[in-house]
Amino acid sequence: MDSTLYQVSAQSAPADPRMPRLYALVVSAGTPATLAHKIRAGLLLVAALLLASGLIFWVAANWQAQSHWFKLGLIEGALALSVLAACLWPRLRLAALFCATLVLGGLLAYVGQTYQTGADAWQLFAAWAALALVWVALAASDLLWCVWVLIVAAAIVFWTGKLDLWQVLVADRDSFAQLMLRLVLWLALALVPLLVYCVPALRVRGGMGWWSQRLALGGALAAWSAIATVQLFDEATRQTVAAFTLSGTLVAASLLLSLFSRFRDFICTCLATVAANVLVLSLIARWIFEWQETEALLAFAVVVMVFLGVSVKALISAQHYLHAQQGNTQEVL
């Protein structure tokens, strides 16, 4: 028995009416009524992932011995069966739609691979997200919204064309309009889970889709931090100041919303804190390294350690605050 229970018992009065109920709760064997359901749902999702992955790898193999019509029919059949299973068997709905979402991506990839439509990679992901949005919105599942957020994030990344560190740091810079559009696109993605919650017909089961919100906000914060940092170490122009200011404003707004709004969440607070540290330390690094002296590196290391300590202390205080403000529908780590 947990020692905490002995402490509670010792601090309570002998005639406290809550003690018999506490004792009955402790000595009862307990029946994990939802355990079997969770295991079954998890196994169904794993099976859906394996089936869809196998089909996608089969498409990627591009076996020449099989005709195009056979491949296309098999992929379309798998997609149709997945959607049909979701309509006929409610217990299989989540796993079937998860499989259908992945198979849809394989179908679009096969069409682009076979018929050479000339479309860019971002157009494939954009079409994937647009077509899958139909059942993702109707299913009211946070898992499917997480998959959809990843697809849209991939579309945005492919649209920018900056797929590696060299392209981010050295390749041609974006124009001011392109830069602002990138900021707005990531902002729109971060707002999607909040909009889903605000529309009762689309709201996920259990209220807020916390994991899709964390995923969308994490991707947006990473993009905003990267844009601001790259612009900061580029030549000082009005575009640099505007990009850094807007990115900093978006990060600060995310941090405040994660702490003080109805959508407060500790994990989102941690993500926003990391992004804020990146922006502030980047600004300090730009100023320190202008000295061009050996002591600059040591000074920057000291600053990083100070900011790390302050951030940890602030996050501990934020966790206590969020626990104090925790409601029935809020999840705090």
TrEMBL record:
Domain DUF2157: 41-145
InterPro entries (UniProt xref): DUF2157 (IPR018677)
Highest rank taxon of the organism: Bacteria
Transmembrane segments: 43-63, 69-89, 94-115, 121-138, 143-161, 181-202, 214-233, 239-259, 266-289, 295-316
Pfam families in the cross-refs: DUF2157
Keyword field: Membrane, Transmembrane, Transmembrane helix
Protein name in the entry: DUF2157 domain-containing protein
Native species: Comamonas piscis
